[in-house]
């Protein structure tokens, strides 16, 4: 038994730990490259790699003057690059903060709710209609496929542009999954409840209809009255105050993240 344990320990120390180490470092560099791809920082990285190659060659061929110049460059160049490309570095760190990995450790961050609330305020002010679906545990893939897939970050500007009456998608629903706009212009099933269909328009009937077949939350803004409604579990609450809606949304997302700590997009 001791021999087996020693063999396993040696195998881990000699092979597996090094392989795991290489994989982790490789993955980190891969993610960094994805973050900076298409930015000016990516071009700078290519230039740095070329300089590294020249430095190695100069040192190998004993080019004394060139090696001296490059050595002095590396002493001060790193600090200079950090100063010059500060905006790009901030952008990379911001993207890293919005990544899935960060949400594993910071699940209580529901700042995107503020963007939803600001967009609803703007829609009400402009006297537009809106239909916003918040996916819960029941997947809404069938309804996502009826619209235009976006998979974009939630922002007031994007939501308002979708519900602009001049937009071809303004009559459909926006479907939000966690902190991303999954799709827009989606078609939802109409409610079969006769009492609702008599007094409300198509937008409200569609919102309630989806909650009758799923556990989704649906926010409806009336184009005629500007009233905000919230549909849940087949029920419709009309005239919801914006501050109350914000509290409900924050509580909903925080509760879900606590219950499902490894919830993914």
How would you characterize the overall build of this protein?
The chain has 265 residues and is an alpha+beta fold. The protein has 2 domains: 2-105, no CATH class; 112-259, YojJ-like (1 (3-Layer(aba) Sandwich). Helix content is 59%, strand content 14%. It contains 11 helices and 7 strands. A 7-stranded mixed beta sheet has the order 2-4-3-1-5-6-7, with helices on both faces. It is elongated, with a radius of gyration of 27 Å.
The helix-strand sequence is: HHHHHHEHEHEEHHEEEH
How many independent structural domains?
A: 2
Radius of gyration: 27 Å
Biggest sheet record: 7 strands, mixed
Report the sheet-strand fraction: 5-15%
Mean pLDDT: 81
Approximate shape? elongated
Tally of alpha and pi helices: 11
CATH superfamily of the largest domain: DNA integrity scanning protein, DisA, N-terminal domain
Number of strands: 7
Provide the helix percentage. 55-70%
Using the coordinates above, name the CATH class of the largest domain. Alpha Beta
CATH fold node name of the largest domain:
YojJ-like (1
- Structural class based on helices, strands and sheet pairing: alpha+beta
Which regions are unreliable across 5 or more consecutive residues at pLDDT < 50?
260-265
Oligomer classification: single chain
């Amino acid at each position: 038994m001791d021999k087996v344990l020693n063999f396993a320990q040696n195998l881990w120390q000699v092979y597996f730990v090094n392989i795991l180490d290489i994989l982790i470092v490789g993955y980190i560099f891969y993610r960094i490259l994805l973050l900076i791809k298409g930015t000016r920082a990516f071009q700078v990285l290519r230039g740095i790699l070329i300089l590294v190659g020249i430095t190695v060659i100069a040192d190998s061929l004993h080019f004394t003057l060139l090696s001296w110049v490059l050595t002095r460059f590396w002493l001060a160049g790193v600090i200079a690059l950090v100063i010059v490309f500060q905006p790009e570095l901030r952008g990379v760190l911001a993207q890293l903060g919005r990544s899935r990995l960060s949400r594993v450790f910071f699940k209580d961050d529901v700042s995107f709710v503020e963007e939803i609330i600001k967009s609803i305020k703007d829609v009400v002010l402009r006297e537009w209609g809106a239909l916003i679906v918040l996916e819960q545990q029941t997947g809404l893939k069938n309804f996502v496929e009826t619209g235009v897939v976006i998979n974009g970050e939630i922002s007031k500007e994007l939501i308002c542009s979708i519900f602009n009456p001049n937009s071809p998608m303004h009559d459909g629903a926006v479907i939000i999954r966690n902190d991303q706009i999954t799709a827009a212009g989606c078609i939802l099933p109409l409610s079969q409840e006769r009492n609702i269909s008599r007094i409300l328009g198509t937008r409200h009937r569609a919102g309630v209809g989806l909650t009758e077949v799923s556990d989704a939350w649906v926010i409806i803004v009336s184009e005629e009255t500007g009233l905000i409604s919230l549909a849940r579990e087949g029920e419709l609450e009309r005239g919801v105050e914006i501050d109350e809606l914000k509290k409900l949304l924050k509580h909903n997302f925080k509760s879900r993240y606590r219950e499902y700590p490894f919830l993914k997009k």
